Fold:
Amino acid sequence: MTEVRFGQAINRALADAMAQDSSVILLGEDVGESGGPFGVTRGLLKRFGAERVRDTPISEAAIVGAAVGAAMTGLRPVVEIMFMDFVTLAMDALVNQAAKARFMFGGQVSVPMVVRMPHGGGINAGPQHSQCLEAWLAHVPGLKVVCPSNVEDAYALVRAAIADDDPVIVIENKALYATKGELPEPASAVLIGRARIARAGKDVTIVTYGAMVPVSLAAASVLEKEGVDVEVLDLRSLQPWDETAVLESLSRTHRLVVCHEAVEAFGVGAEIVARLADTGFDELDGPLLRVGAPFMPPPFAKSLEDWYRPDAGRIIAAVKRAIA
Amino acid sequence: MALGQVSGQILGQIKPSGAELLRLYAEMRLIREVEQRLSVLFGDGEIPGFIHLSIGQEAVAVGIAAALKPHDTLASNHRGHGHALAKGLDVSRFFLEIMGRSEGYCGGRGGSMHVADVSVGMLGANGIVGAGLPIAVGSALAHQLRRTGGIACVFFGDGALAEGALHESFNLAALWQLPILLVCENNGWSEFSPASRQLATEPAKLAGTFKIPAERVDGNDVIAVRAAAIAAVESIRAGSGPVLIECATTRVRGHFEGDPQKYRDAGEFEEIDRKDPIKRAEEALRAIGVADADIAAADDAARRRVDDAVAKARAGTAPAPAAALADVYSPKTAGTHP
Structure:
C-alpha cells in the first residue's frame, strides 16, 4: 500500500495502461507539456513520448470525434476534457457517433475510448466551469459513465474504462483531486456497474457517488452520535448503476436518500428513485428523497457557492425526514 | 511538395488504360443503376425513412476510390451510396440494409444514412453534416501511429464547409500532418440553399488558410478526378500531410427523395444532361475505340446485379424486436444497463 493523491492514482492508472498496451494514447488540451490543468497527466509525455501523449488544439469537437475514428480503427484513445462544462462542444461526437456506432453498424465495430472530465464546484470557478452534467451522458444509450470517490476506485475505474470495449466517460470531481488515500500494490481494475458499501448501517441508506461520498460519510458520523445508523452506498458507476446493490441495501434499511452535487431536478437521483418506486416499493417505510443542488447555474461568489453545493447539514436534514 | 507539381509531373502517366476506363465506367453505371432503383423502390414505399441520392456525382466516388487501397479507411456522409459501393461494398447486403432487413450490413439498424462495412475500411455514412471529418482525422491518426501505410479519406459536401467540426478537423489534420485525403463534393447546394447563401469563402481558400494543398477538378470527369486522387494519395502516402480535392459536380435529384426542388431554376436542369459523368465516360470510351458491345455489357451487368440484389433484399427478413437490444453495448457487459 502506498499513500497517493486522487489525481496521482489516475496518473498511475493511465501510465500502467499505456505501459501494458501500446494502442492506448492520450489526447487533450495541455495534457502533455504542462501535465494537465490539474496535473493528472504530469510526467506521461516524458515517459511515453509526444506520439502517444498529444497536446491538442482547443477543439473539443474534433478531439472527441477523432477519438471515435481512432477507436474504430485500432487505438484506445483516452481524451481529457479540461472541464466537464466543455463537453457541450463535443456532444455530436459523443452522442451521435461514439454512443451509436456499435449499434447502428450492427455490431461491426467497437469504440473503445475513454473521455475523462472533471466536474463539480468548490473552487469558485463560476457557472461555466463547475457544472455536474453526468445525467445528460447517463441518458444516452451506448455510453457508460463512472464517477470514483476515492483513490483506490479512481485507479480501478480508469483501468476498467480503458480496458472496456465501449465508450466510457470518467467523471472526476475537482474537489477530490488533492484528497489522499491508500493504493494497493498491485492495484487492479474493478467491474463497471458495481456499487460499494462505503459504510454499513441499518437505519437508512444514502445512495451517492463522487465527492458526495465523503460528505455523506461525514453526515453519517454526526447522525451516529444521535443514534441513527446510516448505510452509505457509493455507486461508482452511474451507467450502468447497481440496482441490485441499492435494492439489497433498501431491503435492510427500508429508507433511502439519494445525494449528488448535480442539480436535483431530472438528475441521476430522479432515475434511481423512480426505479425504486417500482422495484423497491414493498421495502419502503418512508419517502424516497433526493438531495442535490438547487435548480440554478453554479454561482461564483464563495458565499453563494458554499450555499449552493449540498453539504452534510442538508443530508442530515433529509435523513431525518426519511426516518421521521 | 505542392500538389500542382505532383499532378503536373505524373498526370500523363496516370491516364487510365482502356480496360481501366471501362472498369470506372462500369462502377459508375452500377451506382447509377442502384440509385435509380432506390428511387423507384422509395416511391413504391418499399424503403422506409428517407434517402439522399448522388445521381450526377458518381465520378467523384469512383474516381477517388480508384486511388485508394483496401486497407485505406473512408468516412462518408448522408449522400454516401456511391462512396460505399466504390469502396467495395456488396450490392446485395447494401440493398438488404437500405430496405431494413436483418441480413443487411447493419442488421437493419442503420439504413441508408448509416451503411458501413468496416472490413473494407468503410467507416460509415453519416447523418450529421461534417461529422465524418473528425472520424476520418482519428482514423488517419491511427494509420500514422500504427504505421499501417494506409490513409484515411473523407467525403463531404460544400454544405459541410460551414460546420465548426470541419474547421477544427482541417486544423488538426494540417497541424499533425496526418495522412488524410479531404474530398469536397461541391454540388453547389446545401440542402435547399445555394452555396452563395452558405459560405463566405471558397473550399480551396479555406484549405489554404490551414496550409493544406488543394486542387479543384471537374468532378463530372472521372478521368480528372482519378488523376487528381492518384497524385494526392501519392503525396499523402509519402508523408506530406493532408490534401484537399474539390470536385465541382452536379446534384441531379433533390436534397432527399421526394424533394420537389422548387427552389431550383429550370435552366439548371437543361445543363444537367450535358454534364452527366456517365455519358462523358461513355464518350471517352468510344473515343479510344472501346467496342459498343463492351459498353453495353457493362450496362447489362449493372442491371443484372441490381435485379439480383433487389430480389435478395425483398426475400430478406425483418429484424426481430427480440434481438433489438443487442449491440447497444459490448456483449461482455450487455444486460447490465436498465
About this structure: The first strand of chain B starts at residue 73 and ends at 75. Chain B touches chain A through 52 residues (CB under 8 Å). The domain at 3-312 of chain B is CATH 3.40.50.970 (Rossmann fold). Chain B has one domain: 3-312.
